[in-house]
Amino acid sequence: MSTPNPATPPAPRRDLFVAFLCGGLVAGMVGLSFAAVPFYSWFCRTTGLGGTTQTAKAAPAQVSERSITVRFDSNVAPGLPWRFEPEQRTIDVKLGQVVTVYYTVTNEAARVTAGQAGYNVSPSTTGIYFTKINCFCFTEQTMKPGEKREMAVVFYVDPKLAEDSEQGNVRLITLSYTFYPVRVPDQAAAESPPAKSGRI
Fold first, then answer.
1. Are 86 and 117 in contact, with CB atoms under 8 Å apart?
2. Residue 126: pLDDT above 90?
């Protein structure tokens, strides 16, 4: 008959230790995944990664003589019955000049719908210089049936762009928005009249 080794911990205690270790590892990974979202957002805003623009509360102290063309692009993801377009497609601005442009959005459905816009700029390397003072992006928009709305974007292109040797050939920046469908708030959906059936 073999004699139990006193140095070996009982199996139930060892299993409990492994379970606690695995649970702690999972909890740590979940915590890191939540922390990664705001960290990535901060990193993109700081570096302009992927065409992420910057934000500011006031105009820059100077306006450069160098001009650049800004083109405005608009898109609507499938499942959102909206017409979304800029009031002007391009504009020439001086670096540091604060500009206000408008997009128009129309809900073409016979019911309340809601959307939220994401955005980026291209070339993506100019994101760190494209600065917004006011924008409708990342704010949920709820539209009544047939409603039309103007949405403003206030921005400037940082004069520091002219000091960046890698951006010396940039003459055009495209600001692109895409509206994505989101769930309509229950109260708004309840106030929406029933949609009329169309022709078959």
1. no
2. yes
